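User: My instructor asked us to take a sequence, write out its structure as tokens, and then describe one feature of it. I'm not sure where to start. Here is the sequence I was given:
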Amino acid sequence: MNIKDSTHCTAAQVALVFDCSSQWVGRWSKSGCPRNSDRSFDLIAVVRWKIEQAEKLNQGDADPLMSGGGSEALERYRDEKAKIARLDRLVKEDTLLPRDEVRSCLEQIAAIVRGAGERLAREHGDDARKVLDEALDDADELIGGFGDVKD
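Assistant: Let's start with the prediction itself. The structure tokens for your sequence are:
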């Protein structure tokens, strides 16, 4: 489909340029996309309108508290927002492991070591097992507190 006159395009031609359906172009028109009096589209005006719409969306995402000012409370807010953004990034990069999965894995490891303690008791007596049980109790205490929120 050739576009000979970019100032008088059909909805299908605009849709071709934006790689969408003509129904979408019709929706744009209802949302304020400029049209000529003959109901055709000026492609340059449509592009400008789409850029304005994208800029409005981007401005809507902006957090007004992230710019200007420098109060102590505002700085704490910004610091917390940065921490949240970092955590989100780490999750997306698969470098941050879910706390419940880590805790479960550590509990499984402790169970394996306790099984080894039972074998030690059979082969070397209860004193060997007591030493291992004390160490495992300490480990269980650490695992129980794993992931507790600290300020």
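For the description part of your assignment, you could build on this observation: The chain has a mean pLDDT of 81. Try explaining in your own words what that tells you about the chain.
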